[in-house]
Specification:
It contains 5 helices and no strands. The chain is mainly α.
Length: 138
């Protein structure tokens, strides 16, 4: 039988005991992963066929060259999508904390939305939202 600790300072706190148990569990997981990876590479078949070497395309046999150039408006719209996506996260977090922030934060959010509206109007006027064929005048 183990000797009982003489004082409370000799005992492990629940935090320290939990860390030790977590480290042991993590060690077991890594050993099991290494064992499974070793056994599958050692026991598995190693036949390279043209079918296995073909890139996976969701069951469709690939044809042609996979790399093609994206049109420039794609990058413009993608950039504005990212900007407006981040804007949605800001407005959502502001809406969650609306009760604690007060009138000053409401005015700041109105200014923020106004600037975003100006950027959307700029994008629209520059033709960044038009995906059809471009027609030149005269």
């Amino acid at each position: 039988m183990y000797p009982l600790p003489q004082s409370t300072s000799e005992m492990l706190s629940p935090w320290e005991a939990g860390i030790f148990e977590l480290m042991v569990f993590t060690g077991f997981v890594f050993v099991l992963m290494a064992l499974i990876l070793f056994l599958t590479s050692w026991l598995g078949e190693k036949k390279e066929t043209p079918e296995k070497l073909r890139p996976y395309e969701g069951g469709v046999i690939p044809t042609g060259f996979a790399r093609f150039r994206y049109p420039v408006p794609f990058y413009l719209v993608a950039t504005f999508f990212l900007i407006f996506d981040v804007e949605a996260a800001f407005i959502l977090s502001w809406a969650v904390a609306f009760g604690k922030l007060g009138l000053a934060a409401w005015l700041e959010m109105c200014l923020f939305i106004f600037v975003l509206l100006l950027s959307l109007i700029y994008l629209w006027m520059k033709g960044g939202l038009e995906w059809g064929p471009a027609y030149r005048k005269g």
